[in-house]
């Protein structure tokens, strides 16, 4: 039992850290956000709501200049002011912004926030265990190697979530009659909109898959649906 104590402590610490982080994020979002009122988007989100058999899909505006979408742990969907500014400037269309909302809905519907809490807790315990083992086998570099291996795992799990949310959004957009073209166009614009992102970073270290790979995966889904007439939600 004593041998497991460090791992149990690591797991408990990870859970507490996640809870605190979620609380701090909620407080930040409450302080710097408001319901988004944008008629051009509301017309399209109404189509998403109808496809999901929901009365309404509330979207909130997060008042920061970065270009991003966010699914909060409590299930709320946010678009940043930076994204809305890009829309008003004609750099993105209403349909493309709607694809971001659909993607974030995918994170909520698929339980990614809850799964990330479990993954984070497990990764913290794994990091501690690897550090103990590798620290004995490779004194001086064992802890660094354990951190690197755990970071690789975290990046892979995050990329999996992004592919799943992309697939959910593609199915939802298709069912709503909007289609996947805006989703693919926006992905291709994002590197320019956000200043290049992870260019030069090895794909296996990125928290999001390569744009070309995401677009190709959506295109494959779209082709399959056209052949079968099915638009099953993931």
From TrEMBL:
Keywords, alphabetical: Hydrolase, Metal-binding, Metalloprotease, Protease, Zinc
Keyword Metal-binding set for record: yes
Swiss-Prot/TrEMBL cofactor(s): Zn(2+)
Species annotation: Pseudooceanicola albus
Family according to the record: Belongs to the peptidase M48 family.
GO cellular component annotations of the record: membrane
Classification via Gene3D superfamilies: Metalloproteases ('zincins'), catalytic domain
Listed name of the protein: M48 family metalloprotease
Peptidase M48 domain residues: 35-220
Top-level taxon of the source organism: Bacteria
GO molecular function: metal ion binding; metalloendopeptidase activity
InterPro entries xref list: Mito/Outer_Membr_Metalloprot, Peptidase_M48
Keyword Lipid biosynthesis belongs to the record: no
């Amino acid at each position: 039992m004593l041998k497991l104590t460090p791992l149990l402590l690591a797991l408990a610490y990870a859970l507490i850290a996640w809870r605190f982080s979620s609380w701090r994020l909620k407080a930040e979002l409450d302080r710097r956000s408001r319901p988004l009122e944008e008629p051009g988007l509301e017309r399209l989100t109404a189509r998403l709501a109808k496809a999901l058999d929901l009365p309404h899909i509330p979207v909130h505006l997060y008042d920061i200049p970065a270009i991003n979408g966010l699914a909060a742990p409590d299930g709320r969907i946010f678009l940043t002011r930076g994204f809305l500014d890009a829309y008003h400037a004609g750099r993105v269309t209403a349909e493309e912004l709607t694809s971001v909302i659909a993607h974030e809905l995918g994170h909520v519907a698929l339980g990614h926030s809850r799964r990330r809490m479990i993954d984070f807790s497990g990764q913290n315990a794994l990091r501690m265990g690897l550090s103990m083992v590798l620290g004995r086998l490779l004194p001086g570099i064992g802890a660094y190697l354990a951190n690197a291996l755990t970071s690789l795992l975290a990046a892979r799990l995050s990329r999996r979530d992004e592919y799943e949310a992309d697939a959910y959004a593609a199915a939802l957009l298709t069912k709503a009659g909007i289609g996947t073209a805006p989703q693919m166009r926006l992905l291709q614009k994002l590197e320019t909109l956000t200043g290049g992102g992870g260019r030069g970073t090895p794909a296996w270290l990125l928290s999001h898959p390569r744009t070309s790979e995401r677009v190709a995966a959506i295109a494959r889904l779209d082709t399959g649906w056209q052949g079968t007439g099915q638009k099953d939600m993931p």
